[in-house]
Amino acid sequence: MAKANAQFMKPLTPSTTLATIVGTTALPRTEVVKKMWTYIKSNGLQDKTNKRMINTDAKLAPLFENKKQISMFEMNKYLSKHLS
Q1: pTM score, two decimals?
Q2: Could you read off the pLDDT of 35-55 as tens digits, one per residue?
Q3: For the chain, what are the domain ranges?
Q4: Residue ranges in the chain whose pLDDT is less than 70
């Protein structure tokens, strides 16, 4: 049985910008992504016609370099800049 990658599960500290959405507690990247999707879905930010696109709001815009919309595939690239 394959062992989970320890680096993958290592708790990372969110930046102050990211903490407004996921909280200040250090979390594994998987949990950060899960919390991001909870926020996106609960605020209706998933594009209605193209579900792979995320529309930004006042909290998400600073995370995503003030873009109005990003793809779900780009999200991890931006999140990496806010996790240490």
Answers
A1: 0.88
A2: 999 999 999 999 999 999 999
A3: 27-84
A4: 1-5
User: 45: exposed, middle or buried (C-beta count within 10 Å: 0-12, 13-18, 19+)?
Assistant: middle
Q: Give kind and range of the element (H or E) at residue 69.
A: strand 69-71
Per the listing, tokens 């016609």 go with: 49
Tell the residue number behind the tokens 């995320």, with chain if given.
54
Query: Is domain 27-84 annotated with CATH 1.10.10.10?
Result: no
How far CA 11 is from CA of 22, 25, 29, 31, 70, in Å, comes to 13, 9, 7, 9, 25
Tokens of 81: 């800049």
